[in-house]
Design brief:
CATH architecture of the domain at 21-155: Beta Barrel
Structural class: alpha+beta
Radius of gyration: 19 Å
Strand order of the largest sheet: 3-2-1-4-5
Distance between the termini: 62 Å
CATH class of the domain at 21-155: Mainly Beta
Length: 195
Amino acid sequence: MATFMIPGDILASVGTYGAGAPETGYYAATIGKIEAHPTRPTSRKMALTFDGFTTNEWMNSPYDKDGNVLPGLGEDQIKGQVKGIKTIFVAAGFTNEDMVNGVTDDWLPGRTIYVEWHSAKDLGARYGKVEGYLTEARFNEAKAANKVPGIAAASSASGSSTTAPSAPSNGAALPQTVAPSPSLPPPPGAQSLVR
């Protein structure tokens, strides 16, 4: 007699312990589901899948779904969170022209985004993490040069090579020429990002 039954869609939505997180490198990832944190109104969990591996990253928005600033945030917090959000949108291929009327997180699921991943082994930690985001052009440059993030070279036993998987290290670059994005829905409120 069975003591539990786990639905197949739930099983398909998770990996296994010890499932191979990728080595440190630059990866093209697909953005999956974005969920609001149950108790922190600024926080959103964003699923990223690359190299057969899925991880979650947090992003913070100082604005609610209607384009209103959340209470209790200072000007520096607002600007910092907007800068972090813009970095993600730029790495996902959006341009300043695309974002002229604002953005919503509905634009991100299904998009390709370029990430710098640091493995747990290289961090000396239990889990790996996305260290930064980069434009497609910077990703392609690093991939063509067979570069890896410096942390991989530093933790290498041989220390003799800095080559391996894909692209660059600082994801904060402004957009470079990117193919036009599909028709985008207008953001709620369509107001200035920082008041």
